[in-house]
Amino acid sequence: MHPTIAQVSSDPRVRAAQRHIARADEVTLARQMELSGLAAPTGAEARRATRVAELFGEAGLDDIAIDAVGNVVAWLVGEGARGKGEGYGAAPVILSAHLDTVFGPEVDVRVERRDGRLQGPGIADNARGLAALITVAQALARERVPLARPVLFAATVGEEGLGNLRGARYLLDGRRETGDGRRVRPTAFIALDGAGIERVVHRALGSRRYRATYRGPGGHSWAAFGIANPAAAVGRAAGAVTELPTPSDPRTTCAVVRLGGGTALNSIPAEAWLELDLRSETAAALADVDRAVGAALERARDAENARRTRGTPPLTLTLDLLGERPPGRTAPDEPLVQAAVAATRALGRDCGLASASTDANAAIALGIPAIALGAGGRGGDAHLPSEWYENTDGALGVVRAMLVAVAMARSGGSPYR
Questions:
Q1: Which pLDDT does position 247 carry in this prediction?
Q2: Helices 394-409 and 12-23 sit at what angle, rounded to 10 degrees?
Q3: 37: exposed, middle or buried (C-beta count within 10 Å: 0-12, 13-18, 19+)?
Q4: Residue 281 contacts residue 364 (beta carbons within 8 Å)
Q5: Within this chain, do residues 252 and 172 fall inside the same structural domain, yes or no?
Q6: Do the strands 219-220 and 316-325 form a parallel or antiparallel pair, or are they unpaired?
Q7: Element (H, E) at 361
Q8: pLDDT confidence of 81, banded at 50, 70, 90?
Q9: Does the pLDDT of residue 414 top 50, yes or no?
Q10: How would you class 286 by CB atoms within 10 Å of its CB: exposed for 0-12, middle for 13-18, buried for 19 or more?
Q11: How confident is the model at residue 183 (pLDDT cuts 50, 70, 90)?
């Protein structure tokens, strides 16, 4: 049985938890600013992880650990819950938020507060999600909200860019274990990612990221002119990829995102490269654009080789897969999606179903019902140094996350439908 949001909201302890979240609004905002100011580039999240572990402890969670890949995991077993993890009773609900940002260690991540707006790299994505995660934990623990199954709170590493969902994949891999030694086979997975309250992400946007490298003999830009030029091949390839037709249903994209190569202004490079980001909501469309991009890259190589001086070495092409995120979806009629939609509407907001690339992709790929939710407020300029957050009705996003987590933690059924 899956309780309705109305049933959950009528529980006196849930109402008390909701009041706690409202009272803690400024505390949540202060945590958000603090965590945003701790640099956490993908692959270097340890400092932020240590602080989140401390905050989990202050919130009242148990069995707090930093696992082998750097995720921070902690348990809440409410009154009535039957234990932790598989073999210890009911499968848990996982409520997560990612630790890492897209910004490198050279970026100044200090946060400024101006006229009600917080501005700083990563302030919404994902300091907001982390702050909301901690406040939900504190509200449930302090108000002793009854739960039928445990909730595992997880702050994950490697969600952004080339992190390739490393933390979520590790957490959900049935052959591995979390830092407290218990296998995690969840009944539901909820990712808190960024700001907002009017969307429920139930479709996993798949992606493949490549680096295409062209190599040749290289030489002086005057004396060796006429040899096959890797930089020219990159230019041909970028133009060809940009001109590829892509479907709008399902929406599919292929973007040239970075390129480089060469050592000097007066040298034909021996190596030049471009990186590509391919995305779609379906595996078939992603495979189609993958094949089309591969063919375009080969045509660029062949065209540059065809114009080289006779007898000089040809270019070679190497295509390296840098990362892959599986597409998929949690069906709209799944109790998890329905609970999120109902919670959004119960808080007086319209709700739209959406797609995105988040930690939920890793769960959906394993057949686990999973969604991603914004954590309230408004944000903009994501992934830019000018990123900002406004706390307009920010507490509502935290309440929504709490209501959905409680609804799923009071449900029956088994994991992996």
A1: 94
A2: 150
A3: middle
A4: no
A5: no
A6: unpaired
A7: helix 360-365
A8: low
A9: no
A10: buried
A11: low
Asked whether residue 141 falls in the same domain as residue 200, the answer is yes
CA 91 and chain centroid, separation: 23
Closest CA to 219 of 150, 271, 173: 271
Structurally, the chain folds into a number of domains equal to 2
Query: How deeply is 135 buried, as exposed, middle or buried, from its count of CB atoms within 10 A (0-12, 13-18, 19+)?
Result: buried
Q: Distance between CA 172 and CA 180 in Å, rounded?
A: 14
> Which residue segment(s) compose the domain that 217 sits in?
206-325
Q: CA–CA separation, 79 vs 149, rounded Å?
A: 9
- Identify whether residues 184 and 282 lie together within a single domain: no
Residue finishing a domain among 292, 308, 325: 325
pLDDT at position 115, please? Answer: 86
Tell me which of 325, 349, 369 is where a domain ends: 325
Determine contact, residues 75/409, Cβ cutoff 8 Å. no
Distance from C-alpha of 178 to C-alpha of 168, rounded to nearest angstrom: 11
Is 59 part of a structural domain of the chain? yes
Say if 364 falls within a structural domain: yes
φ and ψ at residue 274, rounded to 5 degrees: -140, 150
Q: How far is CA 275 from the centre of its chain?
A: 20
Tokens representing 182 are 């218990």
CA 317/CA 417 separation, integer angstroms: 43
Q: Is residue 52 part of a domain?
A: yes
Which pair of structure tokens corresponds to residue 5?
């949001």
Sheet holding 117-119, edge to edge: 112-114, 117-119, 388-390, 378-380
Rounded distance between C-alpha atoms, residue 325 and residue 163, angstroms: 11
How is residue 245 annotated by DSSP?
A: -
